[in-house]
Every structure is written in C-alpha cells, then in structure tokens.
Amino acid sequence: MTAAKTNPGNFFEDFSLGQLFAHATPRTITTGDVALYTGLYGPRFAVQSSDEFARGIGYPRSPVDDLIVFHTVFGKTVPDISLNAIANLGYAECRFLVPVFPGDTLSAASEVIGLRENSNRASGVVYVRTTGRNQKGETVLEYVRWVMVRKRDTLAAPPAPVVPKLAERVDPASLGRAVPPLDLSGYDFTLAGAPHRWGDYAVGEKIDHADAMTLEEAEHQIATRLYQNTARVHFNQHAQAQGQFRRRLVYGGVIMSLARALSFNGLANAFHIAAINGGRHVAPSFAGDTIYAWSEILETAEIPVRRDVGAVRARLVALKNRPGADFPWKTASGADAEGVVLDLDLWLVLPR
Amino acid sequence: MTAAKTNPGNFFEDFSLGQLFAHATPRTITTGDVALYTGLYGPRFAVQSSDEFARGIGYPRSPVDDLIVFHTVFGKTVPDISLNAIANLGYAECRFLVPVFPGDTLSAASEVIGLRENSNRASGVVYVRTTGRNQKGETVLEYVRWVMVRKRDTLAAPPAPVVPKLAERVDPASLGRAVPPLDLSGYDFTLAGAPHRWGDYAVGEKIDHADAMTLEEAEHQIATRLYQNTARVHFNQHAQAQGQFRRRLVYGGVIMSLARALSFNGLANAFHIAAINGGRHVAPSFAGDTIYAWSEILETAEIPVRRDVGAVRARLVALKNRPGADFPWKTASGADAEGVVLDLDLWLVLPR
Amino acid sequence: MTAAKTNPGNFFEDFSLGQLFAHATPRTITTGDVALYTGLYGPRFAVQSSDEFARGIGYPRSPVDDLIVFHTVFGKTVPDISLNAIANLGYAECRFLVPVFPGDTLSAASEVIGLRENSNRASGVVYVRTTGRNQKGETVLEYVRWVMVRKRDTLAAPPAPVVPKLAERVDPASLGRAVPPLDLSGYDFTLAGAPHRWGDYAVGEKIDHADAMTLEEAEHQIATRLYQNTARVHFNQHAQAQGQFRRRLVYGGVIMSLARALSFNGLANAFHIAAINGGRHVAPSFAGDTIYAWSEILETAEIPVRRDVGAVRARLVALKNRPGADFPWKTASGADAEGVVLDLDLWLVLPR
Questions:
Q1: What global pTM score does this model have?
Q2: Which residue, among C255, C266, C237, C270, has the nearest Cα to C343 in the 3D structure?
Q3: Nearest residue of A to residue B263 by CA position?
C-alpha cells in the first residue's frame, strides 16, 4: 500500500519510446527567485540585473536569467526521468525561445526519444526531449537530455536500441527568438561593464574569466531545492556516506550557473544564452571545491534579418581547484584535462 | 541604565495568568520569503507553487505555505515568551483560519493561559494561546504552546498552578476555513504530482516519505532569522560551545518544514495543513543530521457542508540519521524510538 | 587579446585625481533582496519589516534597509576601485538622502578625491567619493571611502599626494532627508519593540546588544554576491589557502549588517541610519567567528525644523568571540581592544 503512494522513480525498463510525461509541479517564478539566484551565483549581466536597463533597450522589464528557466524546467523532470539515474550524460539542441519574466508560471513535459541498454545489463541510457512552457502555453525552452538510469531488474528484456540523431549545433537561423527587437541606442556599454560587442570577438580567442567561487553544502542544497530538484545524491549525506564518493554531489546545474556568472568577466555583453549546443558534466564537484572558468570562441554568426544582435558560439569550460589561465581542456591523448568539471557549447547573443 | 534598554526576556516569575502580550515586529510576507522558503526546504505542493494552479481552483493566487505563517507568528513570540526557555514542550489546538498571500502583514499576540512551577523550583511551564493576525485584523492562525522557562530567582514564590485543558484534537467541523470553495474541475492531479484524493487514504496506512535532507548551519540560521526568531541557542556557537550540547540547536520549526516538504512524496495532494492537533520536539537536531520522515493516517473526516475537500489526520514523524522505511515511533516500553526528533499530529486537507 | 576582455582591476598608478567612474551594473532592488537580507541578518526594525507600520507613519510602504542600499552601491565600485585592494581603510561623510523602495534601480559613480603612495612604494591609498542614484537620477546615498591598493609596478612614479579634508562628523542639519514627514500618532511603540524615544538616550550611555551570531561561509558568500561584490578574497578558498590568513575573509559589510541587526536589542526605535560619520574594519572576520555588538551614545541632536524625529550619534562596536557586556573598545594605550572587528560612528534617527 505504501509503495502505491510514494514515488520510487522510474527504472530503465519503465521507459518506452514515444512515452510522454507531463511533469509535476508548475512553478511561478518571482523576483524572490531572482534575488536568491543573485545571492547564490553573483551574476552581473545588466539586462537581467536592472529593469531600467532592460526597458531602455526594448524589454518590458528584466527577463530572468536563462539558467533559472533551464534549472526550473530540468528540476521538474527529475522525479519522472532521473530519480534512479547513475549519471546525467549530456545535453543537446537546447534553445531558449521566449523570455521569462517574474510572475510567469513554468511547467515541463518530456517525450522519450531514445533508449539503449548498456552492455552490463544493469542500466541503460534514456534520451528525452523536454519542453518548458509558460502560463500562455508558449514553449519557452526545449532541450534533449540523455541520462544513464539503473534497471530495477537486470534480467528485464532490453528495448530495441534507438539512439536519436542530434544536431551538432543549433542552426543560427533559429537563434534569438527570446530577444525582442532591441533599440541599441539605449544600451549603455559603460553600465553594462565592458565595451565589447559581437564583432569584437574572434574565432579562436580564449578568455580566462579570472574569478572563482568556492562551493558550500548549504549553497548547492539551497540552489537545487529552489528548482524543486529532488535527486537524492545532492541532499542525503547519511546515505551518500555509504556511496562511491562518501559525500553529497553538487547538482551539475550549479556548476553551469557559477561558470556562466564568472564568464561576465570577459563576456559582459553576452547577456543571453540563446542555445546550448551540447554539454557534459565531465566530473563531479563537491562542497569545498573552487570553481574557475574560461571560454573559447568557436564561431560567430549573424542571426538572419537581425541587425541589433549577433551570435557567438563559445565553449565554456569550468574547472575545479585549477585556474583557467592556461585554458585546460583536453590532454594530448584527447582525454578531459585534469580539473575539468563542465564542458558547455553555447550560442550567446550580444549587441552588434 | 543599560538593562533598561536591552530586553533580557521574561523569566518564569514574570508571567501571570491572563497576561496579554502584543508582540513586536509586524512583518510583511513577500514572494521573496516564498522563494527563500522553497530554497530552504524544497516544498512542491502545486497550490503554493503555482499562481496558475491556485487560480485554476478558486484561489486569487498562491497562498503562502502554512508553515511560513506558523514560523512567522511563532518567531514574534520568542522575545516575550521563550527567550529564557529551556525547552519548547508542545503545541495544541493550532488552526489555520484565513489564507495568507504575499503582501499580507502578520502580527502576533499571546495570552498566558496556564502556569505550573517545576518541582525543582528552578523553572516552570508557561502555557500561551497565540494568535496571528493579518493587516485586516483577521485571525489567520491560533495555537497553544507550552514551554519550560527558567526562573530568575529560584526562591521566587510559585504561582497557583493552572494547567489548561486542551482538546485532544481539533474538531473536524472547524477545519478548512483557510480554503476557499474550490472548483476541482481545475485541479490537475498529474501536475499536482499524484492521483491520490482524500478517499484514497485509509486509517492505519503508513507512508515512508523516502527522501531525506542533511541540515547545514547556514540553512537553519537563515531560516530562523527569516522568521525573526531570536532564540540564542540557534545562533551563538561561542556560547553554545560551553553548553550541554557544545553546538547550536536547530530551531524545531526547521524540522517541521523539512518533514512537511518531504511528505509531498506520498501526500502530494494534501496541500493544506488545516490544524496541528499536537506536536512535540522529541530530541534536538544539529547541523550535519539527515532528516527523514514518515506518516501514519490516524483518522479521516468529512468537513461539514464541504463537498470539495476532506480532512485526513496524520501523524508526521521526523527522524534523524535513520530512514523511515520501518516506521520508527515508539519502543515496546512506550518510549520514543531511537532517531525520532519530531512527532506531529496534523489535520491535512485534500481534494475529494 | 585575452587581457583586453578580462577586467584585471585598477592598480594604484591607474588612478588620477578627479578621475570619474560610472560603475557597472545597475541593479533593481526587490522584495526578494529584502527577504534574503532578513534571512542573512535577522533585522527587526518595524519600519522596514512591515508595510502597514510604514504606511501608518507616512511612508508609501516599507523602505529597504539602509545597509542594503550601502552594500549595493559599494558592491558596484569594487571592480573599478578595489579589485586589487589590500585593505579597506575607512569611510566618512556617508549620508542617506532619499528612501529606497523595492522596484527602485540603483547605480553608482565615483570620483577620485585623494591619492597618497605608501612609503614602501608597493601600494598607495585611494580616496573616492561615491554616489548612489535611483532611476529618477536622485542621489540616494553618498560617502567617501579610502582603500589601500596595490601598485602594478613598484617603480611607477608616485602622484602628488593629496589627502582630502573630511568632516569629523556629518552636520546634524543635513540629516534625515531620507525620512518623510512622519505622523507619530501612527507609531506603535509596542509593535516596534521598545518604548525608548530620541529623548530617552543620554550621552555616555552604553548598551550591550546581548545577542550574537556565528558566521558561516555560505552566509557571507551569499550576502556578498547579492550585492554583486566581486572581491576575490571573499570567495576563492583555493587561492586564499596560499595567503596570509589561509582562508576566505568576510566582507566587512556583513559585519556592519550583523552589528546593525543585533543593535535592535537596545535601539529598537533607531529605525534609520541617517549617516555614517566614520567607520573602520579593525580586524578581519572569518567563518566560525561569533559576532557580538555594543553601542555608546556619543551625542544627541535635534534636526532643524523637524519635530517628528531627532538624531542620536552612536558608536557601534562589533566584536568577535567576545561578549560586549564590558564594552571593549580601546586598551589603555589607545590600541584597539582584543576582539574588536568594527568601529562605526553613526547618526541614527528616532521618533521624538
């Protein structure tokens, strides 16, 4: 009887291709969430920080940070998709499509688009396409995620393997929809913190974001609960003490937000994440780790018909306990370099 | 002269039967408080999480979590009632009477309804009935609390002992006043996280809430300050290092809120605490403790004239460093079981 | 190329007399900031806590805590003024001029008003006058700060030394501009927490604020990021482990806010800081330190033409790991007493 009331989460064999999930709990985003996000990561992008700045260029007010939207939608998927996950393997085709403002209510839905059992038969990879919607039914965010999920029963028959074909990167033609037409005469580059526009970034340029943040247990727990993410590995030291790492794991989204906030120092006018082309949590982070970040410009692109903003594709790398001054990424053999914890491939939007 | 300006708190002999307190500091509750509450405990009840969900069933917007109201009112009483408390002994006859929304301002008042000196003559028990009011003067909450308070002078004469007769449980006929008439056609059980309605819970049913949270010093301090609760044992490690436990004590309300948030997993549609029939902080909790919770259904009741919602009476037990899977509560001899830190008797409201 | 994008901060030789800075990032203050400020410090002044209380005496709603304004403006100056600071030496002539409400957007500008190289030629003192403005262009705050800043090149030629003459204390005639005309018939001293008015404080009176707060890393980091203050010493344990103190330093503003919140117990009706006449961070504080505070009344003054409020000048002393009961301040030789971490000279406004 008890089991019928408590959600044990889905195991690999509970998923089927084409399966749809309408995730619980819708959540109204408020200026309270924005303040707490600021306290947890310290972002300084002017568009999200100042209603006046945002209004001066054509927003009705400051939109909330793109990653608040991402984490909120992601958090809703956890009880259905990844409560029994071993590892969050990657993201692709993530686009931010409509700006989100305080007062908007977000909900999330997912479709299973791929399944592949692992050769050890103890787990498998689940691919889902998740969409976040606002109270008007507009899709504000969509992304694909794949995650390694435990099997309940290793003897359960495997599904026919289906691995979706995912775009290597989001097409620039589909970027920037969450940015209204901007009046750049109102964009004060001094107040925004740096003079560099879209055209000032060159492919191959590497930027050490210089600053760093040491993580505390209370910080990552508060952040992760704020997104109503219930994954147990982040919260239960009593159980984690018996596990592989002996301690709580930091939700990977915390590292994403820290790296993004640190990237202000060098990318101050890249005020919007238009897309996440790909992302990997390369290694786990723990309380006490100090997170550094650096970026490399991979590509620049015009956005069709837009003269106000352009797109810069950047690799954003987060490191733990290692400065980014020498831009660590891969070893000579192609392995992830020592200290790398996050490898994100982003489309950023900047004023032209 | 200094003593005249600093509040030393009241000692047992300062209280008299019938004494009235209008407690300082009124407090306007905002969406900022709601966000911080979410970050600290991770509640997921849809009515409190989504303005759209709340409006869809008949609220003007999301009410704030019932325990925000409880803790805010409770916090105001501390400087007058329990600054010199040894232990918070119990609660009874607690009812939530009017919904509280962001923007409402809460104030608190108490009446001394009982006094009984302890046989050691060093302390006594003070019983107060506390009411919380909103800016319109409506009583939003009332409850009885009893607390063991130090005497200033062990030689002070004891008062005539008066122990109030308290109801064993709140009468179901008086429940649900904080819930407007609901249009359940708008209640989406999928978005709410579970299909179980009032009628799906049976007396004797036990539910392991499965999830758990490890407490950090920063978390319980931030929570307790948010309610403007000034009890020193929660904040002053320099002094606590000399005390019985050598460390800061976690405010019992933090455990109440954690257990309540954990109870979502199994009681997802029990969106409102209508009453606290009784409650005891069985043992102290400290930073580093991991809190688990389970519930037992004690009683179900219709609420007179209401067809929209019904009441379920549940024992909500919080444990530290011990999972709830085997439902620990009492030993064979009737003592509190190892690990139990909180024993709450609640009336919960669910859709029918 | 990288260096051109990342802000390395200014070194002593980068400053020149009369130099003007329009600091990045404007910031809209919200009720979310207020809630987080309450959670971090626990202030209880009724005017800032209750919209109803504030409206009852003539404010349109609760103004935000004065130190939220101070820290927000201060934080903006860090990337330009003190990223390479060795020590924040002092404040003077700080006045709060216009009340700030949730929804207001603050920006900051500074002028260099003094420069003096140190005799070791490795650093120098920079004096700036900083102004904070709201979205209407009104100056809400102004103050002078001096800070010791590293030289990039010890061989760089020193500037002509200019040390500004600063007022010993702000003239009472210029106080109280951020307080609208008050209707004190609406000021409920019971709800405010104490009966003591302006006339009840006497020069020479000392008040032990009795309460204390132990600092946690997560708390001071969240606070400091909330103000978008990027000074590295507060956040980077990996680098600090190699430094003089082996650990992160707590932003001095956190100590200011804790001491101010503690001062409620004895100064409950001193609801507004009108001016900071001077201030010194006497010694660094670290996570784990317990902060106590006491005040001494230095002066009382009428504010010209105002019959509603008067000013009390107080020394607010914060201590670490030492209670304030014996009012530690200076040793017989005039040195700072053991445990003193903050020495503030304030003009406070109280009802008459």
A1: 0.97
A2: C255
A3: A6
Nearest to B108 by CA among B127, B93, B130: B130
Establish whether this prediction's ipTM goes over 0.95: yes
Chain B contact for A235 (CB, 8 A cutoff) = yes
What is the spatial distance between Cα C149 and Cα C85, in angstroms, rounded to a whole number? 4
Percent of chain A with pLDDT over 90: 96
Q: Which residues of C touch B237 (CB under 8 A)?
A: 214, 288, 290
Cα–Cα distance for residue pair A109/A131, rounded to 1 Å: 5
Instruction: Give the tens place of pLDDT for each residue, A332-348.
Output: 999 999 999 999 999 99
On chain A, the residues whose CB falls within 8 A of the CB of C237 are: 214, 288, 290
HEC-encoded secondary structure of A278-343: EEEECCCCCCCCEEEEEEEEEEEEECCCCCCEEEEEEEEEEEECCCCCCCCCECCCCCECCCEEEE
Bridge partners for C256 per DSSP: none
> What token pair was written down for B127?
């019983």
C-beta atoms of A194 and C7 within 8 A? yes
Q: Judging by beta carbons within 10 Å of its beta carbon (0-12, 13-18, 19+), is residue B60 exposed, middle or buried?
A: exposed
Query: CB of B203 within 8 Å of any CB in chain A?
Result: no
Give, rounded to a whole angstrom, the gap between the first and last alpha carbons of chain B: 61
Residue C132: Cβ-neighbour burial (10 angstroms; 0-12, 13-18, 19+) = buried
In whole angstroms, give the CA distance from residue A14 to residue A21: 12
- How far apart CA B239 and CA B89 sit, in angstroms, is 23
Contacts of C28 (CB under 8 A, 6+ apart): A49, A50, A51, A52, A62, C103, C104, C105, C106
Contact A38 C225 (CB under 8 A): yes
Residue type, B105: T
Query: Could you tell me the two tokens for B71?
Result: 């803790």
- In whole angstroms, what is the distance from residue C75 CA to residue A341 CA? 29
Give the pLDDT band of residue B205 (cuts 50, 70, 90): very high
The answer to whether the CB of B301 falls within 8 A of the CB of B311 is: yes
End-to-end alpha-carbon separation of chain C, Å?
A: 61
3-state class of A64 per DSSP? Answer: coil
Cα of first residue to Cα of last residue in chain A, in angstroms, is 61
Number of Cβ pairs closer than 8 Å across B and C?
Answer: 142
Amino acid at B264: F
Closest Cβ–Cβ partner in A46, A196, A321 for C238: A321
Separation between Cα atoms, residue B253 and residue B65, nearest integer Å:
13
DSSP assignment string, C164-230: ----SS--GGG--TTSPPP-GGG--HHHHT----GGG--TT-EEE----EE--HHHHHHHHHHTT--
Residue C314: C-alpha distances to residues C204, C210, C310 (Å)? 9, 17, 13
The answer, yes or no, to whether residue C55 has pLDDT greater than 50, is yes
Handedness of CA C112, A189, A257, C4 (dihedral sign): negative
**Number of alpha carbons in the 13 Å side-chain half-sphere of residue B46:** 28
Tell me the sheet residues that pair with B229: none
> What distance in Å separates the CA atoms of residue B64 and residue B178, rounded to the nearest whole number?
11
Question: What is the three-class DSSP state of C343?
Answer: strand
pLDDT grade for B2, boundaries at 50, 70 and 90: very low
CA distances, C308 to each of C45, C57, C186 (Å): 18, 10, 12
> For residues A97 and B238, what is the distance between their CA atoms, to the nearest angstrom?
52
**Angstrom distance (rounded) from CA C85 to CA C71:** 17
Q: Percentage of residues in chain C with pLDDT exceeding 70?
A: 99
Q: Which string of DSSP letters, residue by residue, matches B299-347?
A: EEEE-TT-SSEEEEEEEEEEEESS-STT---B-TTSSBPTTEEEEEEEE
Q: Supply the DSSP string of B133-158, one letter for each residue.
A: E-TTS-EEEEEEEEEEEE-S-TTSPP
Query: For residue range B27-75, what is the model confidence (pLDDT) as tens digits?
Result: 999 999 999 999 999 999 999 999 999 999 999 999 999 999 999 999 9
Task: Return d(Cα B339, Cα B322) in angstroms, integer.
Answer: 6
